[in-house]
Design a protein that fits this description.
The protein is α/β, with parallel strands linked by helices and 255 residues long. It is built from 8 helices and 10 strands. The protein folds into 2 domains: 4-113, Tetrapyrrole methylase, N-terminal domain (Cobalt-precorrin-4 Transmethylase, domain 1); 118-249, Tetrapyrrole methylase, C-terminal domain (Methyltransferase, Cobalt-precorrin-4 Transmethylase, Domain 2). The longest helix has 13 residues, at 65-77. The structure holds S-adenosyl-L-homocysteine (SAH). S-adenosyl-L-homocysteine binds next to α4 and β10. Residues 12-13, 37, 86-89, 92-94, 117-118, 122, 167-168, 194, 196-199, 223-226 line the site of S-adenosyl-L-homocysteine.
């Protein structure tokens, strides 16, 4: 097997949302590095591989990025086929591009494999169409969390007239709410909070920009979750196929 590193998007959680290309790459891998947000059920596609868990969530320190990169490099230099499994898409808040560039600069063949990013999956799983004729002509994906805590341009986001999908926002709800209100977004703009999108434990709560923080507290919103902000949320259609797939799922009714 030729040395190579696949940087693979594992999708939002539901193993059926994996791409066929990801399945093929996993079946070729000799070593698989798996992130926290990846559903371990996906490992059924690589029973032959050595699995290394990297990354911890929930207040623990993550496995340092430099360590993960060196580990991939070491395995690849041993001539092994390595798969790095990341939640969602590797290039949406996933450092996939950085890792590919770092490995390529060291002469390692790399290939990025798309995954379905949580923001797109979460909305669709809840029957929310992120673009909708006559309602929203675009989508903006943003993270509320940055390494250097630099502020977002909330005014531009508030006035951009696109649906906003906020990642990593659970601990930054105040900032999201205040930034968008100050930026001029209407207080009654509908918001959906979607936790554990595409998993059996998916939960969904509707609110408005004005009530976002208090509703999130009452709902006990936990990470991983995304926020969908915009008028498309009010146009939600019932996600009936989803309920058939996971009858145990308890979505709360829109407020
Ligand atoms: N590369 C990933 C994003 C990683 S950043 C992707 O494309 O989806 C981690 C953030 O993604 C979480 O804080 C949360 O905002 C979001 N996220 C990941 N999985 C999720 C899920 N199943 N449900 C809701 N949000 C999720």
């Amino acid at each position: 097997m030729n040395a190579k590193v696949w940087l693979i998007g594992a999708g939002p959680g539901d193993p059926e949302l994996l791409t066929l290309k990801a399945v093929r790459a996993l079946s070729e891998a000799e070593v698989v590095l798996i992130d926290d947000l990846v559903n371990p059920l996906i490992l059924t596609h690589c029973p032959q591989a050595r699995v290394v868990a990297v990354g911890k969530r929930g207040g623990c320190r993550s496995t340092p990025q430099a360590f993960i990169q060196r580990l991939m490099l070491r395995y690849a230099r041993q001539g092994r086929c390595v798969a790095r499994l990341k939640g969602g898409d590797p290039c949406i808040f996933g450092r996939g591009g950085e890792e590919a560039a770092w490995l390529q600069a060291r002469g390692i063949e790399t290939e990025l494999v798309n995954g379905i990013t949580a923001g797109l999956a979460g909305a669709t799983q809840c029957g929310i169409s992120l673009t909708l004729r006559g309602v929203s002509r675009g989508v903006t994906l943003v993270t509320a969390h940055t390494q250097d805590d630099s502020p977002l341009n909330w005014q531009a986001l508030a006035q951009g007239k696109t649906t906003l999908v906020v990642y990593m926002g659970v601990s930054k709800l105040d900032e999201v709410q205040q930034g968008l209100l100050a930026g001029g977004l209407a207080a009654d703009t509908p918001v959906a909070m979607i936790e554990n999108a595409s998993l059996p434990q998916q939960r969904e709560q509707h609110s408005t920009l004005l009530r976002l923080c208090e509703d999130a507290t009452r709902f006990q919103l936990r990470s991983p979750a995304i926020l969908v902000i915009g008028d498309v949320v009010a146009e939600q259609t019932p996600a009936s196929t989803l309920l058939q797939a996971f009858p145990s799922r308890r979505g709360l009714a829109p407020r």
